[in-house]
């Protein structure tokens, strides 16, 4: 399952991030394996999606969220 597939309100744990030019940038923003994120909402047309990570909210394009593998938590 990828972060793109997450529904509003779901809590997910990051498993891995695919190799891409954006990988280091995402990791510097706190998206590292083992981190829990919450899907907050998505824009009316579906792009971007807002996630809550640690103590802040982050908006990601669906294209970038598709590169992040996650699993559901509890």
Describe the structure.
There is one protein chain. With 74 residues, the protein is mainly β. Helix content is 14%, strand content 39%. It has 2 helices and 5 strands. The chain has helices spanning 23-28, 62-65, and strands spanning 11-17, 36-42, 49-53, 56-60, 68-72. The protein has a 5-stranded antiparallel beta sheet. The longest helix has 6 residues, at 23-28. The mean pLDDT is 92.
What order do the SSEs take from the amino end to the carboxyl end, as H and E? Answer: EHEEEHE
The quaternary structure here is single chain
**C-alpha end-to-end distance:** 15 Å
**Count of DSSP E strands?**
5
Q: Determine the strand fraction and express it as a percent band.
A: 35-45%
Which shape, going by the Cα principal axes?
Answer: globular
Going by helix content, strand content and strand pairing, the class is mainly beta
Total helix count? Answer: 2
Strand order of the largest sheet: 4-3-2-1-5
What does the average pLDDT come to?
Answer: 92
Largest sheet: 5 strands, antiparallel
Instruction: Bin the helical content.
Output: 10-25%
Rg of Cα set = 11 Å
Uncertain stretches? none
Present the secondary structure layout.
Elements: E1 11-17, H1 23-28, E2 36-42, E3 49-53, E4 56-60, H2 62-65, E5 68-72
Antiparallel strand pairs: 1-2, 1-5, 2-3, 3-4
């Amino acid at each position: 399952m990828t972060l793109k597939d997450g529904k509003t309100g779901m809590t997910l744990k990051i498993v891995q991030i695919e190799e891409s030019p954006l990988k280091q940038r995402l990791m510097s923003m706190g998206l590292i394996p083992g981190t829990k994120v919450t899907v907050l909402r998505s824009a009316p047309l579906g792009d971007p999606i807002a996630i809550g990570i640690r103590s802040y909210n982050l908006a990601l394009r669906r294209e970038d969220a598709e590169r992040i593998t996650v699993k559901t938590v509890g």
